[in-house]
Amino acid sequence: MTAHQYIRFRLNLSADQYLKVYQGIAKNINVQADDGRRIAFPAQNIKAFLTHKGIYGHFEMELTAENKFVGIKKLDRGFGSA
Q1: Alpha carbon 82 to chain centroid distance?
Q2: What is the DSSP letter of 33?
Q3: Burial level of 67, CB count in 10 A (0-12/13-18/19+)?
Q4: CA–CA gap between residue 52 and residue 11 (Å, rounded)
Q5: What is the mean pLDDT of residues 56-68?
Q6: How open is the CA angle 50-9-78, to the nearest 5 degrees?
Q7: What range defines the domain where residue 48 resides?
Q8: Domain total in the chain
Q9: Rounded distance, CA 74 to CA 66, Å?
C-alpha cells in the first residue's frame, strides 16, 4: 500500500472572488503549494471554509497515491478570519 500525499498551501480568496464559482465563471482553484508546485482543484473542495469574508488561511490537502482527492483541513485561522 502506497502512502497518501499531503500538499500544504495558503489561500487568500475574497468572498467576491469565490462568487465567481457560483456564477459559473470559475470552477477550479489554482494556487502555489508551499513546496513550489502549482496545483489546481475543484473550488467545491474548499467550500466548507467559506465565510462572509472569503477563504483565508493555511490548508493541507490529502490525496491518495493515485492523486484522488481525500480531503482538506485548515491548519490555522489565517488572515481575515472572524
Answers
A1: 18
A2: B
A3: exposed
A4: 15
A5: 95
A6: 50
A7: 5-74
A8: 1
A9: 23
* Residue-averaged pLDDT of the chain: 89
CATH number of the CATH domain containing 31? 2.40.50
Please report which helix (H) or strand (E) contains residue 27, including its range.
Answer: none
Nine cell digits for residue 29 = 482553484
Q: Locate 41 and state its grid cell.
A: 482543484
Phi-psi region of 34 (alpha: psi -120 to 50; beta: other; left: phi over 0): alpha
What is the reported pTM?
Answer: 0.83
> Could you say which DSSP state residue 34 is in?
T
pLDDT tens-digit readout, 27-48 = 999 999 999 999 999 999 999 9
d(CA 15, CA 77): 16
